[in-house]
């Protein structure tokens, strides 16, 4: 398929990414592609960034058939533009699509579309250290029909947003509230998919955490409320007695691309990484006997978010004196180094936008 | 607040509701009201039915902050227009709003807005027996912002759609597939809220049921996969040994307005109704010893959907010879009689649109 390009006549002025709030400024163009049951995916195009006009009965408004992805483009010191494992994001988009009864996209073609879009918007990729271009591909069901059935039409859209560095004053370990009342996801549900409904459903717990002075929520499994699943919208890792443990993928946990990269890095460094169930009780005991060495969340936004404190009921654990641990720091430096082209990419993870 | 009215110059032709597919034809106008954190809900208006134009970064597309309701307007034999317990729908909309971190609406004002809209569209309320005007109020988060936080702006919209009778050839008992793999909702999640994400998440199970020759899914609890929760998007009732049992509201079940009306009707008739947990095992045993007399789903769409057959693994139960039971029939006749003004409304459930 050929990608039509329609360039805007009115270029926006480019702000300093560090001075804007995350996800509020968008570039001049977007990538759009349509789907219908008769034609499949068709009419891929790059058009001026513009409102989407939908019938009020469009299914996205009523039954939540929508999925998304999140990744970033970085500028290297020698002014090249790199994407980090973007093929994994389109792979995951298709996993989400399957769960939400949305038709699959051609992953390679979507990646080609993204590359073309970034080429058009290359002036928008921030150059300052720590800044990047956030990429948001998403698919929405657009058929105007109130029947409870998958939409017969969809739009696949990619928008781009320059973002500042997550850690403006250096990495800050965060305080975490363990959530018992609200559940993020459960076996048989949509937790492993990146679909809209999972996120708004998490706001109530986040609100509680914020009110109580914590910056994120630790999610427990929905069945026994014993096992650790994720932190906010990040995967989570614990270093206990020299080994690294992360909750195993069980259907209610999203498989983060940062998570999979960290597992590969650690294994490459000869560190034992175990994917298994881990209970809050086990963590508490490990902390009490001094074996809980580090804990951190992982995701595209912050890459590594050290956890300084975990709180539930009248229990509280402080991890590594609320300082960033040496393994967390090394993972952060290595991953951001590879992503921004400052370190050699030995794993072939980065993809250059020409 | 004053409701501005802007009438269209181009009226659509009105189809025969019985000849159109559910939820595909909409009336000439819609009700719209905006929200911002500074102004609260403002600018209520009735405008020509038209597309909604949203920034591609609007939160509804990404994080699923959206809720909806569903109710109907009926024409009486003497040509009045009745709504059935509409205040309960706006009550429930606010319960859903709270769960999804959406600001509450003024329930009475929303009902007044709906009444005004139906007044404008009164020619669209079908008169043929069994036909009605389906009403879809919904709220969407509209702020263009990719941050994970509640939207600062919303739209509340009501659209109307003439619909044919659910049972074109008389009531047909349905065959139900019991779902073990997929979960609709779980304690601490969003099951009790009418929010978009719950619905698309259910398509995979429905697809499985359809493929295997069943018309709906019976949902089990997400924790033990033992207790019955709902059927498709209906509440469910069982008549066992003269008593009527329906799953108790536990946070993962939607509180249907049909459900609450049936409970009140049955109690008024002196029939014992018990809201409690009921397991599939208990149902199986009751069926085997001949005590399972009737089973039916309840909801605005079909009112009563008799369940003729339930299937899971190698177990199958046929209920009341797959015929509609006498209690199911009486409930159907009474509820539809009240809704359409053919029976006296002793409970004060109907609201006339003047
Ligand atoms: C629920 C959830 N968990 C984990 C992650 C981390 O995934 P990734 O490393 O691909 O960014 C994300 C998102 O980015 C997420 O939304
Ligand atoms: C999940 C679910 N359960 C039950 C019902 C029945 O509710 P009501 O009787 O108010 O139509 C509905 C919707 O209408 C629903 O969406």
From TrEMBL, chains A, B:
Keyword Transferase: yes
Biological or metabolic pathway of the protein: Amino-acid biosynthesis; L-leucine biosynthesis; L-leucine from 3-methyl-2-oxobutanoate: step 4/4; Amino-acid biosynthesis; L-valine biosynthesis; L-valine from pyruvate: step 4/4; Amino-acid biosynthesis; L-isoleucine biosynthesis; L-isoleucine from 2-oxobutanoate: step 4/4
Reaction(s) the record says it catalyses: L-isoleucine + 2-oxoglutarate = (S)-3-methyl-2-oxopentanoate + L-glutamate; L-valine + 2-oxoglutarate = 3-methyl-2-oxobutanoate + L-glutamate; L-leucine + 2-oxoglutarate = 4-methyl-2-oxopentanoate + L-glutamate
GO molecular function, one term: L-isoleucine-2-oxoglutarate transaminase activity
SUPFAM superfamilies tied to this protein: D-aminoacid aminotransferase-like PLP-dependent enzymes (SSF56752)
Required cofactor(s): pyridoxal 5'-phosphate
Superkingdom of origin: Bacteria
Residues recorded with modification N6-(pyridoxal phosphate)lysine: 194
EC number assigned by the record: 2.6.1.42
Enzyme class: transferase
GO BP terms: isoleucine biosynthetic process; L-leucine biosynthetic process; L-valine biosynthetic process
NCBIfam families: ilvE_II (TIGR01123), PRK13357.1 (NF009897)
Name of the protein this chain belongs to: Branched-chain-amino-acid aminotransferase
Organism: Halalkalibacter akibai (strain ATCC 43226 / DSM 21942 / CIP 109018 / JCM 9157 / 1139)
């Amino acid at each position: 398929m050929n990608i039509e390009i329609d360039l805007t006549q009115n270029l926006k002025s480019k702000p300093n990414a560090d001075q804007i709030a995350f996800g509020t400024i968008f570039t001049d163009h977007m990538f759009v592609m349509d789907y219908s049951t008769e034609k499949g995916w068709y009419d891929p195009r790059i058009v001026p960034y513009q409102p989407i006009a939908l019938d009020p009965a469009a299914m996205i408004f009523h039954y939540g058939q929508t999925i998304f992805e999140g990744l970033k483009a970085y500028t290297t010191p020698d002014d090249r533009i790199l994407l980090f494992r973007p093929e994994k994001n389109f792979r995951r988009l298709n996993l989400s699509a399957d769960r939400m009864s949305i038709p699959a996209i051609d992953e390679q073609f979507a990646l080609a579309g993204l590359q073309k879009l970034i080429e058009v918007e290359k002036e928008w990729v921030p150059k300052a250290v720590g800044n990047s271009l956030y990429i948001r591909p998403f698919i929405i069901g657009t058929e105007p029909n109130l029947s409870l059935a998958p939409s017969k039409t969809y739009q696949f859209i990619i928008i781009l947003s320059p973002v500042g560095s997550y850690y403006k004053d250096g990495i800050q370990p965060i305080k975490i509230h363990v959530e018992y009342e609200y559940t993020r996801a459960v076996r048989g549900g949509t937790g492993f998919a990146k679909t809209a409904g999972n996120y708004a459903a998490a706001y109530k717990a986040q609100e509680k955490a914020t009110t109580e002075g914590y910056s994120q929520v630790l999610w427990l499994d929905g069945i026994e409320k014993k096992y650790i699943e994720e932190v906010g919208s990040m995967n989570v890792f614990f270093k206990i007695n020299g080994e690294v443990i992360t909750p195993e993928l069980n259907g209610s946990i999203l498989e983060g691309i940062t998570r999979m990269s960290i597992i590969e890095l650690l294994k490459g460094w000869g560190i034992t990484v175990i994917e298994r169930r881990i209970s809050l009780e086990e963590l508490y005991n490990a902390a009490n006997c001094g074996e809980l060495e580090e804990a951190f969340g992982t995701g595209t936004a912050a890459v590594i978010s050290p956890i300084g404190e975990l709180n539930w009921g009248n229990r509280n654990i402080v991890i590594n004196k609320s300082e960033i641990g040496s393994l967390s720091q090394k993972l952060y430096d290595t991953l951001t180094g590879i992503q921004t082209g400052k370190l050699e990419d030995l794993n072939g993870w980065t993809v250059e936008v020409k």
